[in-house]
Protein 1
Amino acid sequence: MSIRAVVWDVDDTLFDYTTADRVGMRTHLAAEGLLDESESVERALVRWREITDRQWARYAAGEVSFEGQRRDRVRVFVGEELTDDEADTWFNRYRDRYEAAWALFPDVLPVLDALAASHRHAVLSNSSVHVQEYKLRTLGVRDRFEAVLCAAELGFSKPDSRAFRAACDALELAPHQVAYVGDHPEIDGRGAAEAGLLSVWIDRDGLHATVEVPVGPRRIASLAELPAVLGADTRFGAPSTFG
């Protein structure tokens, strides 16, 4: 049976999270006076990302709340025992600078336009609905997706097969009728494949060029390749005439 819907990851798939995070944090560090001779901007950015990854893993494992992982990211980064209010205030200042750098990848709108008439669309993210709904609205694409599902509300996160199947259930489609597009070879790529979806792993910058593709996912370097992978009767970059 043909693929009838595409479920999308958000961060670093639709939304250029890495660039926004780096630009926002670089601006934030300078504004907060947190740079000194002992740590370069690049090292501070790497440290922020490492802390973010560790705290997010705690959240994904159910060890801490969504708000808690944000606060702990700040406390570890600044090396101070901040109160919840102090940590929230610090993070909110960073978030304002981070949001100022938000942007979709340039291949996103063309592929959404190309597949608009031939496929249904939804989102599955290891975040919260509040965060991703706001992000998609701000980026002007929320109306492109029938449903937005996130780990915080589902109670389980990718690569758990239940997360992918919940997205299929929301669309009332079987897994083999749904494609999943994400940027992480294991969390997105292998997870979607093992759940029975057509798994598409986007590796835009080739950073994983030496990584063996997990069993199952199709690897692409640009969303321009997606319609061909889906077998869509459409021309990339133009509205579909599929009837």
Note: The first helix runs from residue 17 to 32.
Protein 2
Amino acid sequence: MYNHGDVILRFNGVSFSFGPAKPILDEASFSVRGGAKITLMGQNGAGKSSILQLITKNLEPEEGKVTVSGNITVAIAKQTIPRNELELTVREFFESAFKEKIYDIDPKSEKILQVVNLHAVSLEKKIKQFSGGQQARLLLAFALIQNPDLLLLDEPTNNLDKEGIEHLKKFLIDFKNTCIVISHDADFLNSFSHGVLYLDIHTRKVEQYVGNYYVVVEEIAKRIERERMLNVRLEKDIENRKEQANFFAQKGGRLRNVAKKMREKIDELEENKVDIREEDKKIRNFFIPCEENLQGEIVNIQSVSVVKNHKTTAKKVAISLKKNQHLLLSGPNGIGKTTLLESIAKGTAKGISFQEGVRVGYYRQDFSTLDFNESAYSSLTNVVQNCTEENLRSVAAGFLLNAEILKTKIGSLSEGQKGLLSLARLVLQKPGLLILDEPTNHINFRHIPVIAEALNKYEGAMILVSHVADFVQKIRIDETLDLAKL
């Protein structure tokens, strides 16, 4: 064990990259003390999850050293359950958390399921049979069953309903050991954070701040504004010196030497300019075009399947969606929202029909509609509708998907980049029916207001599932279907 306040984790001059085209860390150094609850910040794709993998030794640094003190135990709750583990039963899933056979795995499993608020779950049930929110709780349980000294959480609120997030907040506030959390939920982070590790995507360094989340975010914003103002002053000085240097150079004689020295000073000033931090860029405002020539009823919902007490029952409803009508589908984790959206998108939902030939744009929370073996570029070209190469790349750039990212296989992208790619696909697809399952999961909080504005202005029929109240409030909702009240 360790004493609270002792340094239990240290990165000393750590460099790491996924090949020459994707550097993550460059001689990064920081430390974490026992008992601290730390937020890890940075843009989508900056490498936050890679830092957690370096801590768990699943990745090794190219240079420098990652030191975990003494006999400290480390456990991680990843963002998503790997696809090759979805066929495991709950018992097998928890058994895989340990290197050696655990003979009392059943009572341990049942106890930890209570901790994450999953009740009356059969240990024989397969992981793939759980909803996204329930899988998020299983990921947390997987880490907690190991009783770690250092708990690593990668986007733990994704897919969780309000009750689940409140339950997790209370758990972390009461948690006595050390915790490092990646999340884009500002209120959640502020409820327990002691400090922030800030991964700068430009310098590849990790900056360390002490204080609650909102204080640190404000401090970072002020520093960025100071850097911007410094650039403005330097740019003005550089322009004035360039004009003077050109004037002296034209005069000839000894004034040419003066001009030469002035140009050397200009070069020095150029080097002093601070690059605008890429991690503080947000996606461009965008518009999802609606399929043309839509008329009449687009979706008709006469009944839906609802899961309560582990039983599925059909409930009668009467909902009709036409062009420019938005439906919010709500209800707690496990009630069947994702299953319902999937069946609507596939056209297999009983009691639900939509206009023949209508183009369906489907944003699925686990990105299983994407082919992880193809490049991001190929994924965009597969849905494009009468789009030039120039327009395709412009749309991609608006979602921070540069030429290098477009060449990357989707399976190698961060979860946040997969989300931005999915949004870019919708823009190019021009759907008449838009189905969105938790579109803010994994997304940088700076992008969320931009996404909300685009959905608010969407002119086709839309069905939305989201547990993020602030996000939903920014979107025009014409009708709400709460499965819990059926």
Note: The chain has a mean pLDDT of 87.
